[in-house]
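Run log // design_07
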């Protein structure tokens, strides 16, 4: 029996149209590759690797950094986990390493979905 291991970026959703090919990852819903006529147009990465540059990634519920992981909303202070502790920041949202669900996939189209559950520091859906 052979164990099948999944790449760190999860399933790879490949779209094709003419000479174009686009690859979207299940983990983080990121655009991993876009080629036209076999020429790569992005700073692509291997499916067996994890892209640390955040290129083509979904950055929600906030992009960029939240200093000290603290923010105020409607008079209430919230504290996020510091995902960049060496700089004291909560970095690029909560879904970068989350598994998105392919709700519509074909050779020409992909739609991914993710349900963000309330959590410490971000008690919203």
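design_07 sequence
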């Amino acid at each position: 029996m052979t164990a099948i291991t999944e790449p760190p970026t999860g399933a790879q959703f490949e779209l094709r149209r003419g000479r174009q090919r686009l690859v979207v990852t299940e983990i983080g819903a990121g655009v991993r590759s876009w080629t036209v006529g076999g020429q790569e147009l992005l700073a692509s990465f291997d499916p067996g690797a994890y892209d640390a540059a955040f290129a083509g990634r979904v950055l929600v519920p906030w992009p960029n950094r939240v200093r000290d992981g603290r923010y105020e909303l409607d008079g209430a202070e919230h504290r996020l986990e510091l995902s960049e502790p060496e700089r004291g920041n909560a970095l690029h949202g909560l879904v970068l390493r989350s598994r998105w669900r392919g709700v519509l996939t074909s050779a020409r189209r992909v739609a991914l979905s993710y349900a963000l559950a309330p959590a410490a520091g971000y008690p919203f859906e």
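DSSP finds no helices and ten strands in the chain.
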